[in-house]
Structure formats: C-alpha cells, structure tokens
Amino acid sequence: MIEIRDLSKNYGTKEALAGVNLSLPQGEIVGLFGENGAGKTTLQKSVLGLLRHKGTVTLDGEPITYRNIARLSFATCEHSFFLNLTPKAHKEFYQMHFTTFRTKRFAALMNFFELPMTRPLKKFSIGQQNQFEVIMALSQGADYILMDEPFSGNDVFNREDFYKVLLGILEPTETILLSTHLVEEVQHFISRAVLLHQGHIAGDMLVSDLEDQGKDLMTFVKETYQYRNDRIIKVLSTLAQDEEGGIK
Prior knowledge:
Blueprint: E1 2-11, E2 14-24, E3 29-33, H1 40-47, E4 54-59, E5 62-63, E6 72-76, H2 87-97, H3 103-113, H4 126-139, E7 144-148, H5 156-169, E8 175-179, H6 183-186, E9 192-197, E10 200-206, H7 207-212, H8 217-224, H9 230-244
Parallel strand pairs: 3-8, 3-9, 6-7, 7-8
Antiparallel strand pairs: 1-2, 1-4, 4-5, 9-10
C-alpha cells in the first residue's frame, strides 16, 4: 500500500498541495480529478520522488527509494522516453533493467495501437507517443501505475477501446492512479474517485457506494465542487443586455 501523509508542496509562495492524506491499496483503479492547478500532477510527481515536498510517502511502510521505485511506473503527458530510440530498443532497455517486464503485454498493446516497432519515436505523432508512454508504464511490471493525462491526442474510439483492454489485462494486485479531466468517460472504468481542490482532498468515494446512493460520478463531482448551473445563463444574459444597450 502507498501511504501519503501530510503531503505539502509550495512553488515559491503558491501552495500546490496542503497536508494531503491518501492511501492507495493494491488492486484499485483510482480516478484523480480536479480543475487545472488543483495539484494532480504535483501529487503524482511527489509520490514518485520527482519533487521535493513536506510530509511522507511510504510503500508498504518503507520510504520510496532506489530499492523499491521499480514497483512504481509513470505515464506522463510530458513523456519519459528517448525520442531517438525505437520501441524495439526501448523494450530491450527495459528488459535489461526491470526483471518484471511484461513482454507479452508489451507486444499485445503495440499490436492494439498498431505502432511500428522499428521507427524512432520522434517520427510518431503526439497521439502515438502518448500511446507508447502508456504501453511502457503498463509493461514495466510495476505494482502501482501512475498516469497523468495519458490520452491527450487520442480519439474517443481509441480511448474507449483501450479502457476495455486495460480492464482485461490488469492483474488483481495492480493499482492504477489515473489523473484525467474525462470524468464521464472513465466513470465505468474506475473503482474509486479522489477529488482535489486547491491542493486539498475535496472528496474520496468508491464508485460502488455512489451507485448505491443512486448517483453517477459526474453528479458527485458537481456536488463536491458546488458547480453552479446558472453561471452560463448569467453570462449569456449579461451579454444579451450589453448588446441591447449598444455596448460592445
């Protein structure tokens, strides 16, 4: 289990995370939601040790160091691969460094996305590069797979089919922490929703509990963030009044 306790992070005077407490057991698919700037990327990078922060992050009671970091993988929209290398070269590199590398899963996902094995990644489209980033994170053999907006540049059909494939290939002990804005798209894929707001945990709910309450994920998100349905009407009404008054 990953345990996050009193995690705080500042960028200068800006508070990105403020005393976050969160537990991530093995075997969950967790959606991490929040508005732009809520702290989603900062949280994931802090867990991975990529950012200095206050508070603690432990994996099965131990600090995350070079000794156990291989149990975590990261699919980032910023990309972590080598642009001049081919997928084939990446596979060989990972096989050398990760004894748990899932060769069959790598091959199956490459086939699913129809990506070429011998073309340098710098010649891939952005959507293809994002697909490959996800493939490597899922194939590393990690227990905890963190994903930060991994599906940018992919069409809705590719994303929908991928969710189905992912549910079919995950082992019971694998955990996904998926940061995304595509709330409605992933609500039938995730098992738990964690909501961040201005660096704080604003909500944490099992999807099954929401269903028992007769709510869907989008309703939970809107209620948690106190979404105002009238704000669109107000701005349109203001614009209409300005036009009637001759204001441009």
